[in-house]
Amino acid sequence: xxxxxxxxxxxxxxxxxxxxxxxxxIVAPFMLVLYVGGVELGNGLAMSVKVxxxxxxxxDMVSQNTQVTSSQxxxxxxxxxxxxxxxxxxxxxxxxxxxxxxxxVSTDSxxxxxxxxxxxxxxxxxxxxxxxxxxxxxxxxxxxxxTNANISLILGEVSYAYTPNxxxxxxxxxxxxxxxxxxxxxxxxxxxxxxxxxxxxxxPATATCTCTQHLQQKNx
Length: 220
Description:
Mean pLDDT: 82
Low-confidence stretches: 213-220
Strand content: 15-25%
Number of domains: 1
Number of strands: 7
Helix content: 25-40%
Distance between the termini: 103 Å
Largest sheet: 5 strands, antiparallel
Shape: elongated
Order of helices and strands: HHHEEEEHEEE
Radius of gyration: 28 Å
């Protein structure tokens, strides 16, 4: 009996037929984790690009106007959500996954930047009028205007609640966000012809304004 058990133990020790299956059983969980992580990372990066594109696009659409009515602003905000396609903009319960906010930030003669108006797809997303802002490093002062005085900028902001399909229990919901400052392409006033804010996009507006001043201060 003892000799038989000893012989079987030696056979099991030297058996190599199941080595590949054993190694696969050890490696498989790590391979699955890498696969799931790669899929979720790819989706996250693609959505992040969409978020950036949405922030730029909504600011660009508003900056092309001298004035925007309430209905036009609502249409611009709603149309901007379509940029996220084919990714969903609402969950299964109809709750919005994306918040798009567009604001105008203007500086006074001392370069102090404040919010002039703000509109958002969320009831709580708009910035308070008069809120003091710190301009982005990408809006570096012009050598001829070192304090960034008497300018207006259109700020587009987007946040998106991304919930991984396979890794939710690990990462939870991840907020993807981005923002863009753009100069208005045409405006209706300047320091020599009107009062603060200057070179702005008027909102909400009820009448059509005539463009009298370009971004580079050239006649349109």
